[in-house]
Amino acid sequence: MKHALKPSQYAILIAIMLTASVGDSLLARGMAQMGPMDIHHLGRLLLHAPFNPFVAAGIVLLIGFFAAYTTALSWADLTFVMPATAFGYVVIALLGRFWLHEHLSATRCVGIALIVCAVGFVAGGPSRTEHPKLDRMDAGLGPL
Amino acid sequence: MTISPVLHIWLSISFVAALAVLGEVLIAAGMRQLGDLDDIRAVGGLSSAIIAVLTNARFVTGSLCMAANFFAMLYALSIANLSLAGPGIAALTYIGNAFAAKIYLHEKVDKRRWMATLFVAMGVFLLTR
Questions:
Q1: Which residue of B has its CA nearest to A70?
Q2: Is B77 exposed, middle or buried (0-12, 13-18, 19+ CB in 10 A)?
Q3: Angstroms from A74 CA to nearest CA on chain B
Q4: A73 interfaces chain B, CB cutoff of 8 Å
Q5: Which residue ranges make up each domain of chain B?
Q6: Smallest CA–CA distance from A76 into chain B, residue
């Protein structure tokens, strides 16, 4: 298993945590500004939503999230990257508490603590399982 | 044959989670097949890295599964409360991903990663309720 991550790879993991959570928050704020819509007016939604600045910024951040997520999967295991994506929920809860002044219940605090522990478990371990044989077969080079 | 509403809801939640697991595992398999994108970018530039990703069959199939997952989630939310569907789908997806990564991607999911998966599933369940 591969151990050390480069600083740029830590930056990608932080980008995963921040872009998903902030992107979702911006989308939620933009859609709230647009008011309720029903399924029969999807065309109106698709035409108008991207021009709302919050929705547009949210879409850009979520595209950034997908790019960062796929990049991370090119050098790390899925089970290593998963807790990083989950940490986005913690960022959303903290944004809600300190930016929107929402109430943070004891149950949610326990949830935050569990996810932080999970990130700690994984961050201390290796990022990638090496499979020389499978990787060679994937590359079309045949078995060793 | 009719099924009970509760079973209908849980079948829908399980289907959404299964699509998410399938999509994420296929995307992860595609990215593993390509190798480190930084290396591809260093050789052929950013455009060759983007082309390599977008022409990878596993990645494209995984992305289609994620798109199907989005529409299946809309259906699940139309028959179940968000307070049940949200945490249920998230928790099942994290646990399913760990099993799929071990079985299909042959990742070494040691005790530390199983603990992390369980903590994430429980944490997301509590946070999103």
A1: B31
A2: middle
A3: 5
A4: yes
A5: 5-128
A6: B32
pLDDT for residue A37: 67
Q: What are phi and psi of A128, to 5 degrees?
A: -145, 135
Structurally, chain A folds into a number of domains equal to: 1
| Mean pLDDT computed over every residue of chain B | 89
Chosen from A82, A102, A134, A137 to mutate, greatest number of chain B CBs within 10 A: A82
Residue A85 lies in a domain: yes
Which among A65, A70, A89, A102 is the top mutation candidate for probing chain B, defined by the most B β-carbons within 10 Å of its own β-carbon?
A: A70
- DSSP character for A125? S
Domain assignment present for residue A133? The answer is yes
Domain that holds residue A53: 7-138
Q: Determine the Cα–Cα distance for residues B96 and B98; give it in Å rounded to an integer.
A: 5
CA neighbor of B101 nearest in space, from A78, A82, A70: A78
- pLDDT at position A132 is 63
User: What is the band of A144 on the pLDDT scale with cuts at 50, 70, 90?
Assistant: very low
Residue A118 lies in a domain: yes
Residue-wise pLDDT for A84-142, tens only, equals 888 888 888 888 788 777 888 899 889 999 998 988 888 777 888 876 665 555 555 55
